[in-house]
Amino acid sequence: MSDPALGLLMLSLIVVVIMLGFPTAFTLMGLGMAFGFGAFYDPSAPWFDNKIFNLMVQRTFGAMTNDTLLSIPLFVLMGGGCRGGLDGRDCHASYAQRWI
Q1: What digits encode the pLDDT tens for the residues 50-86?
Q2: Non-local CB neighbours of 14 within 8 Å, separated by 6+ positions
Q3: 22/17 Cα distance (integer angstroms)
Q4: What is the DSSP string of 22-37?
Q5: How many CA atoms lie within 13 A of 72 on its CB side?
Q6: Sign of CA dihedral 58, 59, 65, 67
Q7: Residue 35, CB-side half-sphere exposure with 13 Å CA sphere
Q8: What are the b/e assignments for 34-54, b being 16+ CB within 10 Å?
């Protein structure tokens, strides 16, 4: 199957599976793993020695070591700390009482 046809197949499957009611995150993860396994499958290698499993670990580690993505949980933590203050002006005081 050619690359454009494979891309259209994946796009149509994403739309169909999301319309069936599956969550978007699990749909993208499952179809990505299925198509990745199909692309990198080597019948001569044992089941767990296929390249797709190494690629999944490398992508996860790459996302965890990304400094830009670190701002998201820190932003949520700062919002939670400011919520403890009366009107947001004393954010630092509420952090001092809670965390230090």
Answers
A1: 777 777 788 888 878 888 888 888 888 877 767 665 5
A2: 27, 28, 31
A3: 6
A4: --HHHHHHHHHHHHHH
A5: 6
A6: positive
A7: 17
A8: ebbeeeeeeeeeeeeebebee
> Which amino acid is present at 41?
Y
* Tokens encoding 42: 């080597």
Is residue 19 helix, strand or coil? helix
Q: What are phi and psi of 46, to 5 degrees?
A: -60, 165
Q: By the 8 A CB rule, do 91 and 78 touch? A: yes
Q: Are 40 and 52 in contact (CB under 8 A)?
A: yes
Tell me the pLDDT tens digit for each residue of 34-48.
888 887 777 887 877
Distance CA 13, CA 80 (A): 39
- Name the residue among 22, 28, 47 with its Cα closest to residue 37: 47
